[in-house]
Amino acid sequence: MDRETDELKTIPGGRASRALLAAVLDQVGEAIISIGDDHRITMFNKRAEQLFGYSAEEAVCMPIGELIPTRFRDSHGQYVGKFLASGETSRRMGARVEIVGLRRDRSEFPAEAAISKVEFEGRIIATVIIQDITERRQQMEALRESEARLVQAEKVAAIGTMACGIGHEINNPLYAILTRAEAIRDGTETSQFRRHAQEIIKHSKHIAAIVKDLAGYIRPGADHELEVVDVNDQLREAVTMAGHSLLSDRIEIKKNLGPVAGTLAKPEEIRQVFFNVIRNGIQAIEGKGVVEIESWQKRGRISVQIRDTGSGIPKDHRGKVFDPFFTTKGPDQGQGLGLYIVKQIVEKYEGTISLESQEGVGTVCCLQLPVSENS
Amino acid sequence: MLHHILVVDDDKEVREGILLQLGDTRYTILEAEDGEMAIECLNNHALTVDAIICDVRMPKINGVEAVAYFRREFPGTPVIVLTGFPDVDLAVEFMKAGVVDFLVKPVEKAKLIETVERAASQRTLFGVPEKLA
Fold this sequence. Notes:
The structure holds 2 protein chains of 2 kinds. Chain A is of the alpha+beta class. Chain A contains 10 helices and 12 strands. A 5-stranded antiparallel β-sheet of chain A has the order 2-1-5-4-3, with helices on both faces. In chain A, strands 7-9-10-12-11 form a 5-stranded mixed β-sheet, covered by helices on one side. Chain A has a two-stranded antiparallel ribbon with strand order 6-8. In chain A, helix 6 (134-187) runs antiparallel to helix 7 (191-217) and helix 8 packs across helix 9 (267-284). Chain B is an alpha/beta fold. Chain B has a single domain, classed as Response regulator (Rossmann fold, 3-Layer(aba) Sandwich), CATH 3.40.50. Chain B contains 5 helices and 7 strands. In chain B, strands 2-1-3-4-5 form a 5-stranded parallel β-sheet, with helices on both faces. In chain B, strands 6-7 form a two-stranded antiparallel sheet. In chain B, helix 2 (35-45) runs parallel beside helix 3 (63-73). Chains A and B meet through helix 6 and helix 7 of A and helix 1 of B.
């Protein structure tokens, strides 16, 4: 040991000092890679070996570009070249840049890199310090997800508040409408007026049912009577409901309902699921179009597919369509709760829902529900 | 039999709606705009009122407080809650408090009459069913 120390003192730049330097660099928790002005690696520490999967022997003389995915190589090479040619000697810690590293096994990882350079014996040597930030990214991702869940919970809580508001603000005037319509119905001998009054009553009851349902969905504690529901019947009823309020001459509804068993659920909820999806399909069609509804059964699951030839869902909206209050429609076409409610109901009955969409072509909604053991 | 019904609701349109639905000769309607007026009315007509139809969200004394007061001070007078809030928990709370029914607006005429008749039949005087008193 003493002899080695003596050597270090007496032979600067000798083998021992290089070994000591290498040992020190190997202790560092970050990958340290030196390159010459030809962009080839001249030094590769232990952490760099672990991070990239190359031994130092393999890495030395290798172009540094080999440690970067092909798609970034050109821009990275230009960046390094510009830095080597500049008068700048180092970048501040804060100026660390995010890069993508490429391991020997061709897998990629996110990293942060800082570069500095020195002139040594007439040659320029740049040193790159690289830190794997996979874990940090994962933590940030987890944090973002947790924040998103919190926002979701807040949105759902807001629905609760809104539903109460809706309950009062809609049901009171609705009651005024209903009672007047009843008075007209019971006070006139004219059959036409009676019929009109009865229509007003029917629609008032429909609005009331929607408000009531909404309040029910946001309260997971609400009890519902379950029964074996004929899925095809509910599809037909949902089409009839949609036909009353939404259909025009330019939209055609095609049904191809295969033999399916029943599912254990509350019928009005299943009907609401289908109605909401069909309504979305109809609303997505601008101009002439078709909504196709199919049902079939396979391996204990009932499948329903509702396809529209509408405008499709833009790519960046696809992840959000089941979020509460997410809407691309105008205020007169809903609050953005339709698919949120659909998902809540479907998942409550251990079903699944997925959407496939292509802009300008249309959207397909695939629903699956379990077959009831009692059907 | 002629029934006296006390209608407690701050919304004039709703009170008129109830009047329209119960508007035949079988019923005499007393109206109150809030819980405070309802209590005053009951204090003056305790023996006359056969049933109370009470809203929940009202100024001054709300429906929850008003119903608690009615049940405590006038236990023989049946109460029907008629509200715009379709809230299951609220319904359970009112049913536990001893109301005859919890109805959500808009309620149809036939349903309201049926409930009022049922409520009035449960009317008691001093804890004794009215027909025996």
